[in-house]
């Protein structure tokens, strides 16, 4: 498959390098060696056994191609991995290898180990986004712009408020990811540590501590809520990043031009139109997020698994789970750069506020006129004056002042204030300050 051209570009390249076949093999080996160490400490094998295993297997080159071929016959990579590991050990150690474990213990624990550094990287990227957003919020808490509903001009808002919503979404996702636990898996064949009695739970807890993973209440072979929690948390973060990218992409449109992506050599160029500056970072974020959403659907459909071992559901989780983390990391790398270098154009925002001849202020004008002229007349006159202002290129307040039904009945200063977008921002500034305080907690 042409993954390097079609799928991998949406992922974090550094994460791809770290999260490869060798890393998975190392993670499986880390689980097996941790299992042997805790069993040795508790007298389940002779002293020195786990150390001897470590010396042999850490120097052993596992055959990756044979592992891949073995998945097709065994259904998971742990089976050929355990076989290769046992074959590499001297006869005196073979019986202590993989003792009391099952394939799912190895794979689930290895995936949790693979994801541990990815969650740390995601947290750092979301922290970068928060820092950049806070700077934008502070700089633009009073930068007036058009607020749009159903893709149409509605009422004034500020760019600071818009950034605050992006920042809150991303920070909520960061805090949710920070609460996700990556539990160790160890239950043996049917999840009850067969042959070990109460020692099994002791082994499980000790392995978790040694590997730096969370300790589950019980083995979770077919209780997949840990995967559900992780997958949906990744998806929430992808959604927050996608919201940022969608808004920025819409604001970069040529006719809008209120923001622009950070410039970089070759970034955003078209294959045929030299004049274009495409919002490529937004496209990459949204492309990655859409793939995460699809992966999450697979994970959600695999939550209910039969009896003591999933039949296809468990197997379906592996790739979507890892891919989602890599895709999200790629999206957040783009989001951090986007927020850190976003070009904001207040002059374009002012221009767009005037695009309707001031009609965006028709609602407060109508409220001003209604007590004097009546509700229906106020609504009609506010719209008529806006059209006059747009066609004649004059200020909205002047068009209102000259309207036959308004002339001399409303003070000019009152009309000026009612048509000034900067005076009709509601709680915008207070919202920015409140968001900044929350983000700083």
UniProtKB/TrEMBL annotation:
Family: Belongs to the class-II fumarase/aspartase family.
GO molecular function, one term: lyase activity
Domain of life: Bacteria
Protein name: Adenylosuccinate lyase family protein
Keywords recorded for this protein, A-Z: Lyase
Species of the source: Billgrantia sulfidoxydans
Matches recorded under Pfam families: Lyase_1
Adenylosuccinate lyase C-terminal domain segment(s): 357-436
Record's keyword annotation contains Lyase: yes
Signal sequence, start to end: none
CDD domains to which the protein is assigned, alphabetical: pCLME (cd01597)
Statement: the UniProt record of this protein carries the keyword Lyase: yes
